[in-house]
Amino acid sequence: MNSMQRAWRSVIRKPIKTLLLLLVIVTISLLILCGMASRNASVQTQDNTRQAIGAGLRLDANERNRFKRIKEASEHFDKNGEGSYGGVHQKIISTARGPQWSSWTDNSFDSLQMNDIKKIAVVPGIADYNITTVITPVLPENFERIEAADVDQHADIGCVSLIGNRRMALDFNVLSGNVSIKSGRMVEADDQNVCVISEQLAKANSISVGDALQFKNRRDPKNTNIYEATVIGIYKTKQLISPKMSGDTYRSENIIFTDLRFPEKAEGYENDPLFEHAYFKIGDVDLYDSVKTAVEKINMDWERYDLIDRNGNMSTVSSNFNDLAKISTLLIVITFVAGLVILFLIFVFWVKNRNHEIGVLLALGCKKVNILGQLFVEALIITFLSFAISFACAPVITEVAANYLVTHQIEQAQMQKDMNAGKVLTEYRESEQTVVGVNVAVTDEMMVFCGLGMISLVGASVGIAGISILRKKPKDILSELS
């Protein structure tokens, strides 16, 4: 009878021992798969403050990732905390109140990346796309803005707001039906140095389509160039556009839509744009889901972005959702370590309780290596049986585990937020997001990794536990039997 036959007979002869080991290996395998699936999970959240509109997808910068990149850049500053790295700058400036920290970022750091936008724009099914700049305050030169007569303007910066668009027809204000053209036309992709103004601003300054408006940099109005934009349209609104910030600079009537690259010039940052949103129109509504899936498969740094669908849902990878990826990785590491210890103890128990069998085999002339091999084959048979159970249960178990971890992360984040409430003053206000789904997938790569990992654990455990057999001489083992 060879080692394989002896191993199989041993497995079926002792069902309790077999079931115990089977249960342990199934548990370890499922924990490994849960950790891997959670690490790669897609956490879908809903953000009602940033709804996408119509049959399209909206690309925004991810707020958490921005602060993560700022933190990483600050690690490259000098020992005093000053320096510049990757578009992030920090230094100490002298003020009347004493030394103060000054921190800022370049537009290139905060802007959506044009290369990534173009990757999405060429996905089959995307009919058109728009890029929208951040709201840019600039000083009006040859016209007057609209102001509230009864409001003290000393606290206001005295500007109008420019919003650049590649195609104004795909601006969210237009898509929602709030903004429409009263006369003239909207901004198109090939336009340069053009603008569309509100009917209130046009009436107050007697401006008509074809007139030229002048703007200049608010930061250095005396030494800056003056930039002109030709009025190609006058718009009207059903409701006043909600201002993003306080002050007449940002009031609805003072919002001016321009071509995509004009705001950066008027602000004094030519060739350094700050793109805030990108909208991708899907041509066939029936193909919406397939186009969205194709977009999500694009090879780009998705941690940098939020992809918002027409319902306001955002798919965020787990490594970008609080510390879920770190916890998942820690779960995998702990499982491997604990698994090795548990399996080692089980196989040590096996060896000690099989001295009689081992002694008989040695007396019959079997080599110790063959005996150790038999133990490994027994464990391997049980391991393969456990894989069938683990892989069958994995989809359900991993989804439950991922949902639990996400819920735990939400609770921890809320507790931290409550603890820090009122302690930190910052311009950053994280938008309210509700988790509406956690999508996990057990891939072939995960199963292969889990399988190889478990075989390695079993092999290492048998090898370590079998040292007691290899180091003893056959007569010592036989003498113990007597």
UniProtKB/TrEMBL annotation:
The chain crosses the membrane at residues 327-351, 372-397, 446-470. Keywords: Cell membrane, Membrane, Transmembrane, Transmembrane helix. The keyword Cell membrane applies. Residues 156-296 form the MacB-like periplasmic core domain. The keyword Transport does not apply. One of its GO terms (molecular function) is transmembrane transporter activity. Coiled coil: none annotated. It is a multi-pass membrane protein. It is found in: Cell membrane. GO terms for cellular component: plasma membrane. Residues 330-401 form the ABC3 transporter permease C-terminal domain. This is Uncharacterized protein. It comes from Ruminiclostridium papyrosolvens DSM 2782.
